[in-house]
Amino acid sequence: MKPATPRTLRAAEVPDALLVERAAAGDERAFGELYERHARYVAGVAYRLLGRDAEVDDVVQETFLAALEHLGTLRDAASVRAWLARIAARRVMHRFDGRSRLRRFLEGWARSAPSRSEPHVVHDIGELDRALAQLSQERRIPWILHRVEGETLPEVARIVGVSLATTKRRIAEADDALGSLKEVGRDD
């Protein structure tokens, strides 16, 4: 029987470091094997950090997308499992930060909205949600990324693939639409 070489090793026998090297070079099968080996572990990390499983799949997907994008920056390819756990933890923290920003924003918005005791005004957080849903995607997505997720304007422009000027305009238009919603109750 001839000794196993990296090319003849079965997938389960190929070291993570070699899979990382191959995946970084564009080998989709190698990346798929890394996913198969580590997705369950990353999901466990995400579940424990989140405390519930509603967003675990999203965190796992975001983690592996980020990993694919940054495989070339991994210093110690043999420690890919720990690296993936760190990425997952950052994704979870980002979600917590986003929730916290959203909660603070919605609480502030609700405080500035007219009181529910005024019968002609029924502005609450649910209305903001409905108002956001009525915005076009081209306005809603940059607005949420910037106002709720806390992304910088240049980063939002990069994410949505438009110029900085267009990003600013779309966010301003969303601000105007949402601002007019709040003003309706005050003008009545």
Distance between the termini: 87 Å
CATH topology of the largest domain: Rna Polymerase Sigma Factor, Chain: A
Task: Please tell me the total number of domains.
Answer: 2
Can you name the CATH architecture of the largest domain?
A: Orthogonal Bundle
Main pleated sheet: none
Unreliable residue runs: 116-123, 183-188
Q: Taking Cα atoms only, what radius of gyration do you get, to the nearest Å?
A: 23 Å
Number of helices: 8
Shape: elongated
The CATH superfamily label of the largest domain reads RNA polymerase sigma factor, region 2, helix turn helix motif
- Helix-and-strand structural type: mainly alpha
- Average pLDDT number: 77
Main CATH class of the largest domain: Mainly Alpha
* Helix percentage range: over 70%
Say how many strands there are: 0
Approximately what portion of the residues adopt beta-strand conformation? under 5%
Spell out the helices and strands N to C.
Answer: HHHHHHHH
Structure characterization notes:
The protein has 188 residues and is an all-alpha fold. It has two domains: 11-93, RNA polymerase sigma factor, region 2, helix turn helix motif (Rna Polymerase Sigma Factor, Chain: A, Orthogonal Bundle); 113-187, Arc Repressor Mutant, subunit A, CATH 1.10.10. It contains eight helices and no strands. Helix 2 (28-50) packs across helix 3 (56-70), helix 2 (28-50) crosses helix 4 and helix 3 packs across helix 4. Residues 116-123 and 183-188 have low confidence and may be disordered.
